[in-house]
Amino acid sequence: MSIDETKASPPFTFQRHVYRNLIPLHDTTSDMKPSNGLHPLRIRFIIALLSLPCAIGNAQHTLISDMDLLRWEKVMLGVWKASFGEIGLNPRDYAGAPNIEAIKALGDGLFPFAEKSTYSLLSPGRASIRLPLDATEKIYGLGLEFEGMNRRSNVYSLKVDHYGGTKGYTHAPVPFYISNRGYGVLINSPRRVKIHVGIGNRKDSQKPAPIDRTTGTNWSARPLSDAIEASVQGGGMEIFVFIGQTPLEVVQRYNLFHGGGVIPPKWGLGFWHRMHTQSSDKDVLQEIEDFQAHDFPLDVIGLEPGWQSFAYPCSFDWDSTRFPDPKAFVQTLDKKGIKVNLWENPYVAPTSSMYDEMRHFTGSHTVWLGEVPDYTLPDAQAVLLRHHQKNHLHIGVSGYKIDEVDGYDFWLWPDHAIFPSGHDAVEIRQLYGLIIQSMLDVHFRQQNRRTYGLVRSSYIGATNLNFVLYSDYYDHEGYVTALANASLSGLLWTPEIRSAKSGEEWIRRFQSVCFSPLMMLNAWASGTKPWSFPEVTDMVRNNIELRQKLLPYIYTAFYNYHKVGIPPFRAMVLEDSHAVPDEMAPASMDDVDNPFSEEQRIEVTDQFMMGPSILVAPVFAGQDERTIVLPRGNWFDFYTGTFMGNGEIIKIKSKLEEIPLLVKDGAIIPMLSSLEKTANTPPLEVRHYGTKENTFNLYNDDGVSFDYAKGDFSITQLVAKQGTDGKFKGTSSQLTNDEYTYGPIVWRWMTVE
Ligand code: GAL
């Protein structure tokens, strides 16, 4: 075909380009001969010949049957492991040790995959796996996500990063997924896992027949695939499979495998407030007075970067003009019952008093011109801990807010950075937040003192580290979804409140934060106070007080997180009765009748469970009504005890002063009767909802130490039982010593007479 260049339309321009490129290789008259005198055609032939073995090598791996079968070893009841190649820096080295007894108590079960259905492949520079997935399976998890629940038909690049942009770039991208068929898979790798969740069909897989888009119906841009395939740039991975009768049990097993959940110190479950970065000790004292004057509680004061003499990078040393006597300052607050939490990022400023010691253990690149410690080195950890002990912890600082351990590529170190330990920069970056949490956690445990802090990145196995995730992202609905999703990966999340455009938004956000793992106002930049919107001030106070009164219930939920792995705040997909009927037949998890079923395509992202029996359904600014998806069983209104529905979707009119709370039939909810601080044990109001008999084991301990691990705690059993006269009666008894019991108990029957 001849090409008339003068008439060439734009598509031809492309053709012409190709044509021109080809000319030298075909044109025997061309003088573009290489200097070695070889004819270009011959060069082409040689190149083709040289690449032949490689092409054949790749061809060997184009079929599933060419992949290696994964070899599974049962490592514990209901837990299997397979591995291939070298994984590199092992994330699980920074996680808690498995609670083997608690895992045993969950019982055993069958390996979820058929024999010869799981594969691995090591190809140059990449390790990959392929695990089966059936057409109806729903997949949850993959760490801290702000959108959606079901991860099927998507691709996630699980990279520790500031949230946004690429799917899977988030503060805690945990490569752990849960199937509604009752199993979970952890890909244990320090590398960025790229995971194709039921998407991308291999040519020899079980796949649907192609549909002609022009004439056919049901053509799909994402045809269903029969597998989950994942890969890392690296030389291998470990894979763990956890089973359970229900998705909740899978999560429990995962959590217990990493030591069980945290029990925060009691003060950590109180009210947190962060000061402006330029605040001084005097400003803090003034702020405390303002809180008292407005009758608002205050349990933790957070100091933002400016408590230091230099920040971004950090000196980690007190600024002597703003805080001339840090010890006296921390102790003054302590006497008022207020803890101090310090903000820091890990990057060491040349002016830091630990710089000279630390600079021997830092990487090739800087962050904000501060040096980046290689905390995989015990020597680097020792420098930090020595410094922090002397300057912060020994004077009573309660913990940290570890910022900037995620960060965009243009902030943090590049993938090619070099660290003195020899560990790869990508691996160190993926694990950085986890490692820092882990070393601080070990420190606090050694002091027999519980901390509760904040961190902006986390990873595999963070379940028993006393830290809560937060973000600069500020979408209220996204925050609620994140709270729910966090529970699927052994994480805790705070939907912190910073600012609002109206009193309505202020109270709505406050309500969500009051029903979360960490109740924090982070308004240091905006200067907004809990009382800044007078029209809702009383409502804000009442919501905080309700959360405070619920402490016995919430604290017990955290104990169960620790003991049996049940997340205290959790996604609705972990609620047994949403997926299975009361008799708990695991086979019917996809029951079409239930409101969560795939058929009805309901993604419940805006409500979650708190403790065993409270369903929290936050309302967002602008909503004067909302729908609530009620799992099977009778549900009652928390405030009035009235029946609300059973296994259905209800619509409620929202009241500005209340966050909708729905309670399960038979729920026993122990609450403090009063928030007055008394010398005696606090009296309790125990509420009962619905018409079912029930038992609640109420946990309590000293609230500050790890002595509970040695058995130093009390359990009071609360029983609601119907007498022969049909009337309900409440009793309580001690199952353990009575060292940490509550005062007199008053039962309140919210539904029955
Ligand atoms: C941000 C952090 C905020 C605040 C701020 C202080 O990175 O997410 O919560 O602490 O730094 O400069």
Q: What does this protein structure show overall?
A:
- The protein is α+β, with helices and mostly antiparallel strands.
- The chain folds into four domains: 5-65, no CATH class; 66-257, glycosyl hydrolase (family 31) (Immunoglobulin-like), CATH 2.60.40.1760; 266-424 and 433-447 and 469-502 and 509-535, TIM Barrel (Alpha-Beta Barrel); 668-749, Immunoglobulin-like, CATH 2.60.40.
- The protein has 15 helices and 36 strands.
- The strands form eight sheets. A seven-stranded mixed β-sheet has the order 1-4-5-12-11-7-8.
- The longest helix has 22 residues, at 425-446.
- Beta-D-galactopyranose (GAL) binds at residues 304-305, 343, 403-404, 472, 522.
CATH domain class name of the largest domain: Alpha Beta
Tell me what portion of residues adopts beta-strand conformation: 15-25%
Total beta-strand segments: 36
Q: Could you give a short account of the major beta sheet?
A: 7 strands, mixed
Question: Ligands in the structure?
Answer: beta-D-galactopyranose
SS-derived structural category: alpha+beta
Cα-atom radius of gyration = 29 Å
Low-confidence stretches: 1-58, 579-601
How many domains?
A: 4
Helix content: 10-25%
Shape: globular
CATH superfamily of the largest domain: Glycosidases
Biggest sheet, spatial arrangement of strands:
1-4-5-12-11-7-8
Q: What's the rounded overall pLDDT mean?
A: 89
Q: Give me the number of helical elements.
A: 15
CATH topology of the largest domain: TIM Barrel
What is the end-to-end distance? 93 Å
User: What's the CATH architecture of the largest domain?
Assistant: Alpha-Beta Barrel
